[in-house]
Amino acid sequence: MVDTAPRGTGANGVEGGVGLTALLVAAARAIETHRPDSLAQDVYAEHFVRSAPASAHWPVHLDQAPDGDASPLWGRFARYFGLRTRVLDDFLLRSVRSGGARQVVLLGAGLDARAFRLDWPPDCVIFEIDRDGVLAFKHEVLGALSAAPRATRVPVAADLRTDWAGALRAAGFDPAVPTAWLAEGLLFYLPGAAETDLIGTVDRLSAAGSALAYEVKLEKDLMEYRASPLYTSTREQLGIDLLSLFSREQRPDSAARLASSGWSASVHTPFEFTHRHGRGPLPDNRNDALAGNRWVFASRPGPERQRPRRPGPWC
To answer: Which residues of the chain have pLDDT under 70?
Structure first.
């Protein structure tokens, strides 16, 4: 039998461990794209979902999802990912359009298609760091669609637990140029020491005028949420046990560390952006797995600003 699955599927690509969660986020982005009140558009997301055998049967339209918007997984959780996509899209575009950044680094890029779907300045360079299997799958799916990036795109095959900074610099990254960094849905999976090392590396590689956005969870005991509707539905419907993938170590205070290094940082709940945009998940008193999620935005002041300024909400 001829194997027609794209490269990068399987245990070392998007269908193994954490890689499978990239397909979950892609499915959520596809559903968000087809909503009449969509917050974010990603026309490539459904192609990723349909191209991987593990997710080929998942919904990419809300009317394909059991229980529709009432579904904890394809309703509330998917809407969370849609809101997150919009907020971080806005952060990156603001960073390069008015913040002066000319490099973008997507840490643990997964199936992020921002290089292909956002309106970038012509001189912007986008570095996508992820494991080789994930990047190979992405390359094959986008190549079959004849998709063209809207800025210079540089894939960097590296494990974020190894010398990814060396691989990034070897790929042409210039630490003297202001950079917009993004760690979307990444730090949950890293041990505390790896998060500390990653944030420290970003600090060392960031010129004045750089910006960083990342997502963290603040719960002291994640297992208290094992019976939450979000995690239960993800486990039962998709076979993805998110809590078994998340690191359960105590999280470092990375925002405080950045502040001590001269960055200005602000920490927000997702629900703040729900109110700002008029749609998205609201707090849920029923063992809410999103209660501890925080979105952090930080900036390193440029030479024209002598004092750090608390950053805006980037939307």
So the answer is: 1-5, 8-13, 303-315
β-bridge partners, 154: 127
Residue ranges with strand state E in the chain = 103-107, 125-130, 152-157, 179-183, 211-217, 264-268, 293-299
Under a CB-based contact definition with an 8 Å cutoff, are residues 111 and 23 in contact?
yes
Q: How far apart (Å, rounded) are the C-alpha atoms in residues 98 and 305?
A: 15
Domain ranges of the chain: 19-299
Q: What is the pLDDT of residue 128?
A: 98
Enter the tokens of residue 45.
Answer: 């997301």
pLDDT at 286: 84
**300: CB partners within 8 A, 6+ apart:** 206, 207, 208, 209, 210, 211, 262, 263
Copy the structure tokens of residue 239: 């076979």
Which region holds residue 314: left if phi is over 0, alpha if psi is between -120 and 50, else beta? left
Question: Amino acid identity, residue 218?
Answer: L
Which pLDDT score, from 0 to 100, does residue 314 have? 42
- 142 token code pair: 């986008």
19-299 maps to which CATH number? 3.40.50.150
The CA distance from 225 to 13, in Å, is 28
Residue 133 half-sphere exposure toward CB, CA atoms < 13 A: 17
Give yes or no for a contact between 42 and 32, defined as CB atoms under 8 angstroms apart.
yes
pLDDT attached to residue 219: 81
> pLDDT at position 313, please?
45
